[in-house]
Each structure stands twice: as structure tokens, then as C-alpha cells.
Write a structure and sequence with these properties.
CATH class: Alpha Beta
Mean pLDDT: 88
Order of helices and strands: EHEEH
Distance between the termini: 48 Å
Helix content: 40-55%
CATH topology: Rossmann fold
């Protein structure tokens, strides 16, 4: 993915890093930082919440364990 840096900084630094990226001409940012950041119009921003992603993985893993047992009953 060209020109799409990932922001994975501590929350207090995330906005400053995003601002620097935008100032450098970056037009797409993937934010892994546990913070909400703002970017100007024309810059794409996608927030990834790792805690939610881990919950989803855990849920589906639990289904794999429970579903075969339910079929045995």
C-alpha cells in the first residue's frame, strides 16, 4: 500500500503524528493508536480498534469450540 502510513503511537502523540504526515503530503492514514484523530478534507483516515478486533476473534474462536459440542447433543 503506497502512501498509506500506519499510526501506532501512544494516544497523546497520535494527532501530532497525523498532522506531520498530512503536512508531508500523505493522503491516506491507518490509525491503530487508541485515540481519535482529525484530518483535513481530502485525507482518508481509517481507525482500527485492536480491542474490538480481539473481541471478534475471541467470539469466533468460542463458536468453534461450542458448536461441535452442541452438535453432539
Amino acid at each position: 500500500m503506497r502512501n498509506a502510513p500506519r499510526v501506532a503511537t501512544p494516544a497523546p502523540s497520535a494527532q501530532e503524528v497525523a498532522d506531520q504526515l498530512v503536512e508531508a503530503g500523505v493522503t491516506s492514514i491507518l490509525n491503530f493508536a487508541p485515540a481519535v484523530i482529525s484530518v483535513p478534507r481530502g485525507v482518508s483516515l481509517r481507525k482500527v480498534d485492536l480491542s474490538i478486533e480481539l473481541q471478534i476473534l475471541s467470539f469466533y474462536q468460542q463458536l468453534r469450540v461450542v458448536a461441535p459440542r452442541a452438535a453432539e447433543v
